[in-house]
Amino acid sequence: MGRAAGDGSHYTWVLRDLSSGKYDQSSTISLPSVTSIISKVLAKPALVPWTYRETRDAISGLVGMFLETFPDDVDELIDTLADPEMLEAYLKENKLRPEDQKVAAQDRGKAAHSMLENLGGMALLGDDSAADAYAARILEKDSFTPFDKATASWWVDRQPSVVASEMRLLSLEHQFAGSTDLIWRNNDGDLVVTDLKSRKAGLDAYESDHIQVGAYSIAYEEMTGQYVDKETVLVVRGDGTWDEYQSNLDNRAIFLSLVSVYKQLKGR
C-alpha cells in the first residue's frame, strides 16, 4: 500500500510499485479522518456549556490574578473588564481564553496518549514484564501526572495482551481512515479495540467517542479479516481516576450513516 501521513482532517497514502519497490509520489490515496467525519456531521451539545465554563473560569482567573498583583488598584481592574480590547489582551497574555484552554487540553491529551503508547510499545517488543513493571513504577512515583497514573492503573488492572499500538487504519470500502490507540486481547481472549480520552474530573465518555471506536473496528476488520469482539473507550481524568466504557456495536452502523451524510455534504 505505501506510507501514510495525517494532516488532522485527512490521511494520505503514497502508493508503491511492487515491481520496482519504489514509492510513486504521483499516486496517492487521500481519505478523510474518522474524527473529521464525526465533527463535520455530528452535533456537539456539550460544546456550548464547555465554552461557557471556560469563559467563566477565565474571567474568574483574571480577576483573581489581577487582585493578587494589584490588590489596591480596583479602578484599573474595572477599566480592564469594561474595555473589550484591554480584556482580550489581558486574557491572551495570561492564556485564559477558551482557545488557550483547548490547546492546553490537547497537550494533556497528547501526554496521556504517549504514556499508553509507551506501554504498548514495550509490550509489542515482547517484554510484557517490562511494561507491567513500568506501569507499577508510575503508580509509585509522585513525578508522574494524574493522567499517567490513571493510564498505568488501567494497565495494571486489565493486563492487556497487546496486538497493535497507535495503528493507522483505513477502509477502502467506506473511504475513511484513522489511528487507534490500542488493540489488545483481554484475559478471556477477546479482541478489543480501545481509544483513550483524557478528561477533567467527573466527565465520562461522549457519544462521539463510542462512534469513533466503532469506526476503527470497521477498518481493522476490513484490513485484517479478524473479528473485533469488543470496543471500549478508556477515559483517564485529571484527578487520577479512570473508567473503561464498553461500546455498543451499533455504533458501527451509526458511523457509516455519518459517512454517507459527510459524502453528500462534500459533494454539494
What does this structure look like?
The strands form two sheets. The protein has a five-stranded mixed β-sheet, with helices on both faces. Strands 1-2-3 form a three-stranded antiparallel β-sheet. The longest helix has 27 residues, at 98-124. The chain has nine helices and eight strands. The radius of gyration is 22 Å and the shape is globular. The model is unreliable at 1-7 (pLDDT under 50). A hairpin with a 3-residue loop joins strand 1 (3-6) and strand 2. The two termini are 30 Å apart. The chain is of the alpha+beta class.
**What portion of the residues fall into strands of 2 or more residues?**
15-25%
Class by SSE composition? alpha+beta
Mean pLDDT: 85
Between the first and last Cα atoms, what is the distance in angstroms? 30 Å
Q: Could you spell the SSE succession in H and E letters?
A: EEEHHHHHHHEEEHEEH
The coarse silhouette is: globular
Which runs of at least 5 residues are low in confidence (pLDDT < 50)?
A: 1-7
Number of strands: 8
Task: Characterize the largest beta sheet: strand count, sense, and whether it forms a barrel.
Answer: 5 strands, mixed
Radius of gyration: 22 Å
Main sheet: strand order = 4-5-6-7-8
Query: Share of helix among residues?
Result: 40-55%
Number of helices: 9
